[in-house]
Fold this sequence. Notes:
Elements: E1 2-8, E2 13-17, E3 22-27, E4 47-54, E5 59-66, E6 72-76, E7 84-89, E8 93-98, H1 107-119, E9 123-128, H2 136-152, E10 155-158, H3 167-174, E11 178-182, H4 189-196, E12 222-226, E13 230-234, H5 248-251, H6 256-261, H7 279-285, H8 291-301, H9 313-324
Parallel strand pairs: 3-5, 8-9, 8-11, 9-10, 11-13
Antiparallel strand pairs: 1-2, 1-4, 2-3, 4-5, 6-7, 12-13
Helix pairs in contact: 1-8
Amino acid sequence: MTGTVYKSTGSWYTVKSDQGDFIECRMxxxxxxxxxxxxxxxxxGDSVDYELEETSDTVTGTIHKIHERKNYIVxxxxxxxxxxxxxxxxxxxxxxxxxINNPPTTPNFIDxxxxxxxxxxxxxxxxxxxxxxxxxxxxxxxxYLQHIYSTIGYKCLRASAKERTGIDELKAMMIGKVSMFSGxxxxxxxxxxxxxxxxxxxxxxxxxEASKQGQHTTTFAEMYDLSFDARIIDTPGIKGFGIVxxxxxxxxxxxxxxxxxxxxxKFNNCLHKEEPHCAIKAALEKxxxxxxRYNSYLxxxxxxxxxxxxxSFDEDRKASDETRK
Length: 325
């Protein structure tokens, strides 16, 4: 029998059959997927084959095959630096929720996420959330970030679940697709899902005033069928986003504004650092590329994964300020 994984708790997987039934399944043995070292070989969104097992109490299943994925989005495993964690698979569109200071989302985090999504061919929409809480300075910061990313070509949306701003636009972009909501803990993923589909009534928590950090409410990734012909994968909040398995020469190709210019560099293998006649550095000096984006590129290039969970928002804000002068 074939079905789709709707929930993964590490040892049990909730699979929706092609007939619409939900079955609790375990994994049969260990899966080796094309040499991928993953902490979770089966992910939400996977299409799997399974066999039913009947006991005196209940009916469960055993997953014995994972179908080839059209894509997946991964991050470096928090506890095991040489392994990756597959967040979800077979995604049509990712909505990255961004808050300016409640909690802060750094440009470096945004860029790491976008680079990974570009590498795996997944369209990303940036959702600037909680706009009802903005003062003038916060609004300026948000509009500036929106200007940077919309100029590059990313779709941007401003949203507020409380005021229902952007909800209709969000729905329209989700119809007929498998979407994923991602972002830091506390950016309002579950609250926004509830605004889209109130009957789900997902658990939400407030931001800790002491740390300005979100508290985890979603423990495991889970897919939901929505009433307007859409499916959403709600994911646990991500503190950091370590880049996985990228060669230095390919990283700039996942920055769309770099990719357009890199053919103009004097050297084919230009890393856009100290090399002469570099088109990216020339564009940077003319403010045609944002300094915050170049700063993110250098951090990824240099493998600055030791600090990727604790990047200071102030540092990235200062880099952004340089672009405005």
